[in-house]
Specification:
This is non-specific serine/threonine protein kinase. Keywords: ATP-binding, Kinase, Nucleotide-binding, Serine/threonine-protein kinase, Transferase. Belongs to the protein kinase superfamily. By secondary structure, this protein is of the alpha+beta class. It has 12 helices and 12 strands. Strands 1-2-3-5-4-11 form a 6-stranded mixed beta sheet. It has a two-stranded antiparallel sheet with strand order 6-9. Strands 7-8 form a two-stranded antiparallel ribbon. Strand 4 and strand 5 form a beta hairpin. It is globular and about 60 Å long. The N and C termini lie far apart (51 Å).
Length: 365
Amino acid sequence: MGNCSLHIDNFDPTISIDSTQFEFHNPIGKGGFSKVWKVTHKKTKQSFALKEMLKSRVLAKRSVHSVMNEKRLLSILKHPFIVNMHHAFQDRDFLYLTMDLKAGGDLRYQLTKQAFNEEQAKFIIACLVTGLEYLHSNKILHRDIKPENLVFDSLGYLHITDFGIARIWMEDNSGDTSGTPGYMAPEVMCRQSHSYVADWYAVGVILYEMIAGVRPYLGKDRKEIRDQILSKQVQLKRSDIPSTWSQEALNFANHLIQRKAQNRLGNGGYEEVKNHPWLADVEWVKLFRKEIIPTFQPSNSDNFNLKHASEDWNDGIAVKADICQDIFIGYFYNEAPPPPPQNEKEDPNSQKSKRRKNSFFKFIN
């Protein structure tokens, strides 16, 4: 079930692949150096999410290790409740990862659209627990569990994505302090060695947010949030929440957001989380097989923030082309696709045309 073994990547890096083999539709996400597109493979007609990463910004943001780490982990991971990778390739300007397309949008987007009831929240958390069980049983800490990194498929099953700062667990990892402050476990924020229970803290924050509408600790930056965590232990009270939520749900969230890792639910392993009374009625085998009808189903219409995703970087970052090409080993290399022949006119309003125009950075040869 969740403890499926790692798989050997069956993608053959010697097979030629490039971005011209895909039809680009619309952007569905955006990060600091990447944009995620909905694409269709022209030959097979299979749809994917294609993560397009601008090499100049990867270098400028010193994110080469993160990019290579994500590709390496996704090459060995495969599970029904994570977003799996299919191809990794590059051209002169960009790195590309083709991954499972999950059309239901991310949890953050859905949280802005509606409040989830307890039944829906339990199903969402159960999906998350199933995915984390797989990662933890294979000695992997995700370290950035947050609503933006959890995506729904069209049916309503939740999947874990974005493995840029995930790590294979090591006993002394006090130097690894990356993450998102609002969801970062106190031991990580305080630069202490940490284990899988750090991911469970983030699960607690997410459930707390679904129940109360806000995170347990708020602040404009990491220091402010850290100071709040150190000043007091926040706990949900019966009077703080809607009467429709059960005491077991409160207990589950409160035990996950314990500041001290040794007191936190999950410190004894994922079975401790699965055996909590709030999740007692979850049929884990049926969930893994996706035989349970999701309690939340995303809209059939657009589930992505297209306005945000269509924004481009415009900081004029420039790098020399020849310094990029020997860094990203493992991404199949192909030269950037040539422009269309002069006798073929391209629709200037097409997504592909806009994408070419919006490369917007210059290489200095």
